[in-house]
Amino acid sequence: MLSFQSLPKFLIMFIVVCITHFAFTKAIKVICAVGFTNTGWDSVCWEKGGKFYSCPTKQCSYNNRQYAPMQGCTLDKTPGASNQQCTAYQLQGARYQCWNSGNVRYMCPKDTNTDFITCSDCKLL
Q1: How far is CA 7 from CA 1, 13, 16, 17, 106, in A?
Q2: Which residue from 67, 98, 111, 119 puts its CA 20 to 30 A from 43's CA?
Q3: How many Cβ atoms sit within 10 Å of the Cβ of residue 118?
Q4: What is the pTM assigned to this prediction?
């Protein structure tokens, strides 16, 4: 049972724990340069260096759009290249796998595609 004298100590410890918890769970902004996928209310963002983040989908965009534009993309076994609006993408070696809003997968060269979705209010996974 807490005594009258230990209550202030308890409150101080409680405040310290709350401040520490807040400092380590601070929401951050990340550039999804390695990959991005929308899982509904939340999205997963892969940042360079192998870090994964969970971010509110409504806080993710590129120029206020929820896709990353990619050029020079090819469809498997189809000649020619096209520009795609990638709603999900993942780096695979020297190319990005890109899924458009129709969930069609394209392969896009890494060198020419440097515009990525950015997310805010993210938490490190």
Answers
A1: 10, 10, 14, 15, 62
A2: 111
A3: 20
A4: 0.78
